[in-house]
Specification:
The complex is a heterodimer of chains A (258) and B (263).
Chain A (H helix, E strand, L loop, with lengths): L3 E14 L2 E14 L3 E5 L6 H8 L7 E6 L2 E2 L7 E4 L11 H5 L1 H5 L4 H14 L15 H13 L5 E5 L7 H18 L2 E6 L2 H7 L2 E6 L4 E7 L14 H16 L6
Parallel strand pairs in A: 3-8, 3-9, 6-7, 7-8
Antiparallel strand pairs in A: 1-2, 1-4, 4-5, 9-10
Helix pairs in contact in A: 7-8
Chain B lengths: L3 H24 L10 H13 L2 H33 L1 H16 L6 H8 L3 H25 L3 H9 L4 H38 L5 H10 L3 H29 L4 H13 L1
Chain lengths: 258, 263
């Protein structure tokens, strides 16, 4: 039986400003199944990052509730892995030490996780780089270290906030393939935020479409493309159908750059 | 820049200016108590070292400087951490620290000598007082400059404030702290010399003072030479430590890169 990993109920977030408040999120409700890959796509300012901050426990909602595996999210939790847009590595730690940061913070004991760390580094193709320092790696490699770090403590859910947004187009496509491969191997629940429609369709089982002011979900689209999806999948008519459909939603709501 | 030709050129320039100095002093018959020729300064330097006089006083000044540097840096590090990490401490204490800093501390030296005597203590305290401020400010700025995203990452891992301090803020502050140490080292030397001027029984500052009374200008020049070399060596020492500690710092890397490019 498929269980719910995340359940979000009429979630809202109001930011106080000088002239009243701005509704960053309004009445957001959705659920994510265990092992599902869900992408959220929307223009900047649609509240998707706010949503991720609430799910990671960094921000408290103004109303509604979010829960992970049945327990409400009320502050940072140890069973979540987060990947930010920047790799956010610590330059004074080696690749391996960066990956083991969650283990150090949570006092889980490095010895028990050393093998797991090496396995994960092999999985993301960084096997020989564990003794290197972040500045010796390319941007794509740094982001792979960040993904490894998010997975090391075997979290129930992976939250990704435009993780490939800062990479060049070629590296980005490569990272999309890598992420698909990692996900298929580890079967984690992934909550993936992006402003790229093709990226969302390519990666996700489901795409939540968000529009701004106030931030709300206007569509919940199931992507029925087989896996593993090769990059060529992006040129198929079915793929085009999905992206066209999503783009049309934004055009109705006032364009992508709103 | 650092090739054989340029090093030779630099040495040539040095010799030429020393020769010019010597020639001007002899040619215009400038009296030695106004401007001594380099030959006499060298002679004074040699005599001072041969008799063991300089080494003894140099050792004393170095001891004062190092003790003052260590005490001042430790104080700056601790106070800086307290001010950076605690709003109440910042609110109640920081205005006084700034007031104290805007005071020309050279003017404090006479008082400190009166309070703590002509011996080692007053020199160490004066050196420490001058050395501590750059450490304080740099520690403060360094601890507060932790990248917001890195703090978010630590928080998302449910790290405690104590863990964020030890695992993120402190290593992040190290480049700032090292820059502060750089300045503090030279400041400590200045503090020790100034306090020796005011009143001391030993030390290079005291020696300069007594030579001044005896119109021994060559001697004073020779000690100024020693002090500038000591300052340079102390600075190099701190730089070497910095390179070891901050091997991961990108700005440190840039510095090394530039040195290599210009080499």
């Amino acid at each position: 039986m498929v269980t719910e990993a995340i359940s979000v109920q009429s979630l809202s977030k109001l930011y106080a400003t000088r002239d009243g408040g701005v509704a960053a999120l309004e009445q957001i409700s959705f659920a994510i199944d265990e092992g599902e890959f869900v992408a959220v796509v929307g223009p900047s300012g649609c509240g998707k990052s706010t949503l991720l901050k609430i799910l990671s426990g960094l921000l408290a909602p103004s109303g509604g509730s979010a829960s992970l595996r049945g327990t409400p999210i009320a502050g940072p939790r140890r069973d979540i892995g987060v990947v930010f847009q920047a790799p956010v590595l610590f330059p004074w730690r080696t690749v391996l030490d960066n990956v083991l940061l969650p283990i150090d913070v949570q006092g889980l004991g490095r010895d028990r996780f050393m093998a797991a760390a090496m396995d994960l580094l092999a999985l993301v193709g960084l096997r020989e780089f564990e003794r290197r320092y972040p500045w010796e790696l390319s941007g794509g490699m740094q982001q792979r270290v960040a993904i490894t770090r998010a997975l090391i403590h075997d979290p129930a859910m992976l939250l990704m906030d435009e993780p490939f947004g800062a990479l060049d187009a070629m590296t980005r496509e490569h990272m999309n393939l890598e992420l698909q491969r990692i996900w298929m191997e580890r079967k984690k629940t992934v909550f993936f935020i992006t402003h790229s429609i093709p990226e969302a369709v390519f990666l996700a089982d489901r795409v939540l479409v968000m529009t701004p002011r106030p931030g709300r979900i206007v569509d919940d689209l199931r992507v029925k493309l087989g896996r593993p999806r090769p990059l060529d999948a992006m040129t198929t008519p079915e793929f085009g159908e999905y992206t066209r459909h999503i783009r049309a939603l934004f055009n109705v709501k006032g364009g992508l750059d709103a | 820049m650092r090739n054989a030709k340029n090093i030779g050129l630099s040495a040539l320039l040095f010799c030429a200016s020393i020769a010019a100095w010597e020639a001007v002093v002899r040619g215009f018959e400038i009296p030695a108590f106004i401007l001594p020729p380099p030959s006499q300064v060298t002679l004074a330097l040699w005599r001072g070292f041969a008799s063991g006089l300089y080494l003894q006083h140099l050792g004393h000044t170095l001891l004062e400087t190092m003790l003052g540097f260590i005490a001042g840096s430790a104080l700056g590090l601790i106070l800086g951490t307290m001010v950076a990490m605690s709003r109440p401490v910042e609110f109640f204490l920081y205005p006084y620290i700034v007031m104290f800093q805007s005071l020309p501390k050279v003017a404090l030296a006479p008082l400190i000598v009166v309070w703590f005597g002509l011996g080692l203590t007053s020199k160490v305290i004066n050196a420490a007082l001058i050395a501590f401020f750059p450490l304080l400010v740099n520690t403060m700025v360094g601890l507060r400059s932790a990248d917001e995203e890195r703090v978010s990452l630590m928080r998302s891992l449910a790290a405690s404030e104590r863990q964020i301090f030890w695992m993120l803020r402190l290593p992040n502050a190290l480049p700032f702290v090292m820059a502060g140490l750089d300045v503090a080292m030279i400041f400590a030397l200045i503090g020790a010399i100034v306090a020796e001027f005011v009143g001391a029984q030993k030390g290079l500052g005291m020696l300069i003072q007594s030579m001044n009374f005896n119109m021994d200008v060559s001697g004073q020049f020779s000690i100024l030479l020693i002090l500038s070399v000591v300052g340079l060596l102390l600075n190099r020492g701190v730089m070497m430590i910095r390179k070891r500690v901050l091997f991961w710092d990108p700005s440190e890397k840039e510095r090394a890169e530039q040195e290599r490019v210009s080499a």
